[in-house]
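Let's study a protein:

===
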Amino acid sequence: MAINQNSDFLFLFEAIQCNPNGDPDQENKPRMDYDTSTNLVTDVRIKRYIRDFLKQSGHEIFVDMESDAKVKMDDKLKAVLIRLWEDDTKIEALIDDDQLFAEYLNIKKETAEATVKGMVSKTPLNKEVNKAVLAGLVRNNFSDIRMFGSAFAVDGFNKAYTGPIQLNWGYSLNKVHLMESDTISSIMNDDNSTFGKDYRVKYSLIAFHGTINQAAAAKTGLTETDVQDFRDAIWQSLSANPTRSKLNQYPKLYLEIVYNDGHYNGHFGDLRGLIKAKEADGKKSEEVRSLNDLTLDLSALIELTKTQQGAGKPIKEVIIKHSSELANLFD
């Protein structure tokens, strides 16, 4: 059953001497707003971490490679349908309608390739069967689509799913300075590679604001189990699959406000506006190398969660994960 409440969440993680999100238009340097010395990380980067973690944990992911190679969306969907062709029981469970399943059996050809060719077409053999199969795949198979949505621009399967879980771009709470190395590294760009300098941040404390929306969840079938999987994945995925440029990224805080009925996403605005970070006494911004070199003020956020929670108030419950360094702030 799909979730029946709305949430806003805040996610903080630190990046130490690494490249949280390279900008291909800037020699793969860490993404920066140079006017404010702010380090930026896209929502796509975080979703990729989460998808990779879900896949490692045994979930079927749609936005993924096929046979260790990058593929277009239509080729990915064709590969999924070809695998399903061999098992009518799985197709029946996806369609979940006796009449439509019978219609699927009527259009099923002697080979998987022929069947899929008839389905993935500008003039599909049966549009209603296609709709039921896609809805079943999202509902039963693709946890990443249930979370983040997708626009299926595939012949015979054109449909846009708005993701119930959305994040905006993250930005650093501290001024960030880059390390410029003389090391030359290979930068992979699709089917070729180039060589460039290895740029990294000295230290960045990055904050994301996101939402979990019940109306969109009704369309993709996002369940409470899916939301729990998301919470686990966003917390663990950063360090679960480290690469050379992404090593030394660690979660610091996940705080989710679950709203009572009648309250919607954004009720308190962007939660990042309720927290502040500044250099600890005697430190210059270019000298910051760890969380201990910053003073993090969460008092406004904590006060809000205490005073606005309960019957007749906006907040139903608050879900918190935090690192050991922040334990004293939540006692």
